[in-house]
Amino acid sequence: MSQSVQIPLFQGIDPADLERLLGCLGAARRRYRKGDVILAEGSPTTWVGVVLAGRVLMEKSDIFGGNTLLGSAGPGAVFAEAYACLPEEPLQISVTAAEETTVLFLQVGKVLAACPRQCPFHTALIRNLLAISAQKNLQLSRRILHTQSKSIRGRLLSYFSEQVKAAGGSRFTIPYTRQQLADYLGVDRSALSATLSKMQQEGLIRYRRNEFEVVQPGKMP
């Protein structure tokens, strides 16, 4: 599993030590098809998931059939770590495979517990997990900022502004379909599509599927 040392959770851990570490953590690899439920809302978990390939979606549903997309995770990303640390707390979200996906699961109890073998790289793993959790809190804060505007246009401008900064240029690719982007921003899909079309007609943006270009970045917030 040499490619996994590039995963942020395993940063600073030598490839030669990784297999031994995974054995200590009771690691298990699972594969999922598009649409498969990886973790179900309402169920507890004691496992931390690491995406090795593919992409997963974190979603929240309501009793009326509504769905809110909270985020997505691609190769190298970690998910469900907060719930795994609170095994009595049922998941308030569901995690599904957005495409064919491979996930590595780690038993969180073994991640946080003192290693009986006194592995020096176990400390690095815990430090990396804390850093990842902090980063995810920032991502959640960004989503809250994106949805503060009452208008769809305002929410799109906020989201696109972040993407431009992250890409370091005016062109970027988002990980969402139109419906998923609408769910993420908490708006109606048809209204979102209409707003995107209007912004393109105004010469503010160009887009094709999930590839975007901000033509007038000076108008970004």
Automatic annotation (TrEMBL):
Domain (HTH crp-type): residue spans on this chain: 150-218
Domain Cyclic nucleotide-binding, chain residue ranges per copy: 9-106
Keywords noted in UniProt: DNA-binding, Transcription, Transcription regulation
GO molecular function: DNA binding; DNA-binding transcription factor activity
Entry-linked InterPro entries: cNMP-bd_dom, cNMP-bd_dom_sf, Env_Response_Regulators, HTH_CRP, RmlC-like_jellyroll, WH_DNA-bd_sf
Pfam families per UniProt: cNMP_binding, HTH_Crp_2
A single cellular component GO annotation: cytosol
PROSITE patterns assigned to the protein according to its UniProt record, in alphabetical order: CNMP_BINDING_3, HTH_CRP_2
Name of the protein this chain belongs to: Crp/Fnr family transcriptional regulator
Species the sequence originates in: Candidatus Avoscillospira avicola
